[in-house]
Amino acid sequence: MRIAQVAPLYVSIPPRQYGGTERVVHWLTEGLVERGHDVTLFASGDSQTKAEHIAPCNKALWHDDGVTVPDTFHAIELDMVMEEAFKFDIIHSHLDFWLFPFHRHCPTPIVTTLHGRTDLPELQNLYDHFNQTNLISISHAQQTFLPQANWIETVWHGIPDKDYGFNPYGGEYLAFLARMSPEKRPDLAIEVARRTGVPLKIAARIPDYKPHFDWYKKVVEPLIAANPNVEYVGELGDEQKFELLRNAKALIAPIDWPEPFGLMLIEAWAVGTPVISRPYGSIPELVKHAEVGFVAETVEDLVRAVDRIDEIERELCHQYFLDQFTLDVMVTEYEKIYEKVIQRQQTKSTVLI
């Protein structure tokens, strides 16, 4: 198949540090190339890929101090995609709703994977209007807020099946791996560490978004300073991230929002580390309670989950990753979707003729 992958321009493909969506786009693109597909990646100029590469901007926008209105480059990207559309059998967008206006007017079928939250009230009008757009969710939970949308499939994320350093024993600290923002609740992770006496290592990107940055400075930074068993280790690259996860007692993800997926979950399971999280968004769907971690809501329940974490068999966590969350599984699912959508488009064209 001739496939276009359309990536956000904020972070390079693959990302150097933070960037869950961009990691998934990278792995999917490379996986499709490995299977012999003719793939074109639309991404920032500092991206690296085995696919053909078209760059709407020279540098990832979050790392270019000269860019003040980043969406100007996304407008350029959309035009580039449409200019090349006739060359592809299918266009796969990861740009949220930006390609929606082209779905009905482009002769090449377009699918969009939604990587973000779907619970915001203002999205209802958008999906009422674009109710025929081909959408792919990254969890079944993501679909529940938009029943009117044209969901064609759910595809869980997958990462390459390689040796990330499976650790059958774990360590003596909790790991927190996420953005330093209110919905990820690093403050709650710190409280659990304080109550249990288990050390906590926080690996997180400090956000540029001012309300979240201000919240971090006001709430989280003082908590880290006041708790000697809590360590902020910065924003980590892949090698450091997997080292943090494999040597942890558990990954603690006390989220306070409808998490669409949570890539850090499967990264933890890849090295055998169990997960402790709260029952929001995709978490009950992904975390098999008392098998690969614990789903707990209150602080007291989270504390009890930490106390019980040695009941989880790390080998089962690793096997769960191998069974459900490898790149091969994800690529196969996307290939099936592409074939289905292309066939449907061809059938529709034949009927019209």
Q: What is the topology?
A:
Elements (H helix, E strand, L loop, with lengths): L1 E5 L13 H15 L3 E5 L9 E3 L16 H14 L5 E4 L16 E4 L9 H7 L5 E3 L2 H4 L7 E4 L19 E6 L6 H11 L3 E6 L4 H17 L3 E5 L3 H9 L3 E4 L9 H8 L4 E3 L5 H4 L6 E3 L3 H10 L5 H11 L2 H26 L1
Parallel strand pairs: 1-2, 1-4, 2-3, 4-5, 5-6, 6-7, 8-9, 8-11, 9-10, 11-12, 12-13
Protein traits:
alpha/beta; 7-stranded parallel beta sheet; globular; 353 residues
Provide structural commentary:
By secondary structure, the protein is α/β, with parallel strands linked by helices. The protein has two domains: 185 residues, Rossmann fold (3-Layer(aba) Sandwich), CATH 3.40.50; 151 residues, Glycogen Phosphorylase B (Rossmann fold). Helix content is 39%, strand content 16%. It is built from twelve helices and 13 strands. It has a seven-stranded parallel β-sheet, with helices on both faces. The chain has a six-stranded parallel β-sheet with strand order 10-9-8-11-12-13, sandwiched between helices. Helix 5 packs across helix 10 and helix 8 crosses helix 11. It is globular. It starts with a strand and ends with a helix. The model has no long low-confidence stretch (mean pLDDT 94).
